[in-house]
Design goal:
Layout: H1 19-26, H2 36-102, H3 104-122
Helix pairs in contact: 2-3
Length: 123
């Protein structure tokens, strides 16, 4: 036996999907008790659950939208900062290249001195 959930567009509860399900539910069980009371209980519990879920969804929607807007703004800021860092790195590389081109002997001496220093520290 299956139930159809209540949605916002419908005020009616459709407790069964087929007429066979409805017929089975109205037949007394082995104790002689009609099981429609159980079906009604399940329908009431399902309605309450749907109402609670709808209420939670309505409360969560503004928070989710606010979070989404914040993340969109953060993404834009991060892209801007990444572009700035990339530009700064390019400027530093170009500055180093121009320095080496203008003073090649100083660059070789500096590289040699740094190599010696690193070798000393690595021992």
């Amino acid at each position: 036996m299956t139930t159809t959930p209540i949605n916002e567009k419908s005020d009616k509860t459709v407790p069964f999907t087929t007429s066979e399900d409805a017929a089975k539910a109205s037949v007394p069980n082995s104790n002689g008790v009609n099981s429609t009371a159980g079906v009604e209980l399940v329908n009431r519990v399902a309605q309450s659950a749907h109402a609670a879920i709808d209420k939670l969804a309505n409360q969560a929607t503004p928070a989710v939208q606010h979070l989404q807007k914040s993340l969109e703004g953060t993404g834009e800021i991060l892209h801007h900062r990444a572009d700035q860092l990339r530009n700064t790195g390019n400027e530093l590389c170009e500055s180093a290249r121009s320095g080496v081109r203008e003073h090649p002997l100083v660059a070789i001496g500096t590289a040699f001195a740094l190599g010696l220093l690193i070798a000393r520290l690595a021992r």
